[in-house]
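Course assignment 3, question 2. Fill in each field.
Student: A.L.
Task: Predict the tertiary structure for the chain below.
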Amino acid sequence: MEWLQVFVKFFPASHASTEQVSIETPEKAKLPIPSRIPCKTCIQYGLEGLVDIEYSLRVGQAHDILAEIHELIIGQSYNTRIVHTEFHGQNMHTRAHAFVTRFQLDKMDTMHRYNFIRRRLITLGMSPTDADLQELTSAHITTKNTPEGLTESDEDQWITEIRCVQWMREHADLDCWTKEIAHASDVQTGAAAYAYKVADVYTKLADHCIKEWEKALKKVVENWEEDCRMREREDELAQEEEARI
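Answer field:
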């Protein structure tokens, strides 16, 4: 909000284009910058001086994003190689695969940000055919570049072979994961069988303990009743002895 106030102070004519900004959601404010408004409106509000400034900032931003994509590609390649050679077991391989997949998702998100910045630059006057900042597609960040000096047909063959190798690797990974999942299922089945066996043993042990407890309790009751009868008999004999005396 303070930024808009300063902006309107330097460019009073742009006040008509500014909207009421919510304090709760200031990020939704539409900034009156040259790349967001038509050229005629830009001239009307006296924002021509900002075109070169925003253009320079956008170019720097685009190159920073390209460098970020380059780092993501290197990071994905390095970690993929480690996953294939160093990680073993279903649990570790699944977690590592999810980590590597995150690189691909980050590359796609970064590619979309780059193309967005590129569209802004075109709005500011950059040529759509600019050689330095070309449009990126998923093919640019998922396939390998061809060697120099190849003809067009050789390049097509190179890309085809690369894709075949990539498919075979992915198919091999799929087979490996399928076997690991099947192995995990067998292990899980064995664990379940063991758990059922343990539960059965504890159930039988509990039944045995209950039966022994019932026997012991019955014996205690019988002994107590016998003791009571003996005491009553002793009392009767004592009374008879007193009566004779």
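Instructor remarks: The mean pLDDT is 76. Residues 90 and 181 are 7 Å apart (CA to CA).
Grade: pending
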